[in-house]
Amino acid sequence: MPGPATFAVLAAAVVVGSLVQGTVGIGLGLVAAPVVTLLDPGMMPGVMIWLTSVYPVLTLATEWRATDWRGLRWAFAGRVPGTALGVLVVSLASARLLGVLVGVMVLVAVLLTWLVVRLPMRPSVLAAAGIVSGVTGTATSIGGPPLALIYQHVSGPRLRATMAAYFLGGGVLSLAGLGIAGELRSGQALTALALAPFMVAGFALGGPVRRHVDAGRTRAAVLVVCAFSAVALLVRSLVG
User: Fold this and answer.
1) What is the C-alpha to C-alpha distance for residues 87 and 44, in angstroms, rounded to an integer?
2) How far is CA 113 from CA 202, 227, 230, in A?
3) 48 exposure class (CB count in 10 Å sphere: 0-12, 13-18, 19+)
4) Average pLDDT of 121-125?
């Protein structure tokens, strides 16, 4: 378990990330993963995968009817082999390399989101997104952006519900793969359990925020914060 000061920072990152995900469908891993990796790389990717696997249950409890199950079939077809590749990355990567991977993944996600890249919702594209997401989601806990880019133009409930179902199923796959490979630690699960109340608090805050906050300004602020976190993580990982 991390010390009190470190835990307080992790808890704040989880609250903010949960709030963002409750508003736009992704964000918990994007916001919190760089912070966790920066402060306690030994907790990655286990802590964040536990949290991002449980969080979707909160979303699906209220918005499951809006889920695009047909599209998810193709995404999961790619997620399975992508997960296997992600487990291989975790088993071979050092803490420093993992930090670089997380930082780069966040910066790429921020760039693509900022540019508002539009991808066609075709089976081949969904499967390809599943493969990329499987690798990055298992290795760095940040697997949402590839699929979110495809669904970014659908309604809010459909985006949140579809992403939640994907995170739930994908998280189970990643946890199973990492567990079989011996890459999960009991301390990661305990830390995730301790952070769970802060995740629930962020989800609860997301409801009012989703209805009242200017989404454009929020999106820009979140992207800036994520970019700075990723740059700080990259500098620390590269410089040592």
Assistant:
1) 13
2) 22, 12, 15
3) buried
4) 93
Q: How far apart are CA 134 and CA 184, in angstroms?
A: 17
Residue 92 token pair: 């071979």
| pLDDT value at residue 219 | 61
Peptide bond into 123 cis (omega under 30): no
Per the structure block, which two tokens stand in for 118? 């539009």
| CB distance 142 to 33 below 8 Å | yes
* Conformational region of residue 197, where left means phi above 0, alpha means psi within -120 to 50, and beta covers everything else: alpha
Q: Could you give the maximum distance between any two Cα atoms of the chain, in Å?
A: 48
- Between the alpha carbon of residue 33 and those of residues 136, 140, 178, the distances in Å are 12, 8, 17
Predicted TM-score (pTM) of the model is: 0.85
In which element (H, E) is residue 152 found? none
**What residue type is assigned to position 51 of the chain?**
L
Alpha helices (runs of H) in the chain, residue ranges in sequence order = 4-24, 28-39, 46-63, 69-92, 95-115, 123-140, 144-151, 156-180, 186-212, 215-239
CA-wise closest residue to 160 among 207, 195, 123: 207
Half-sphere exposure of 45 (CA within 13 A, CB side): 37
Instruction: Return the residue matching tokens 């298992």.
Output: 138
pLDDT at 20 over 70: yes
Average pLDDT over residues 143-150: 84
Residue from 188, 202, 199, 196 nearest 47 by CA: 188
Measure the CA dihedral 174/210/16/161, to 10°.
-10
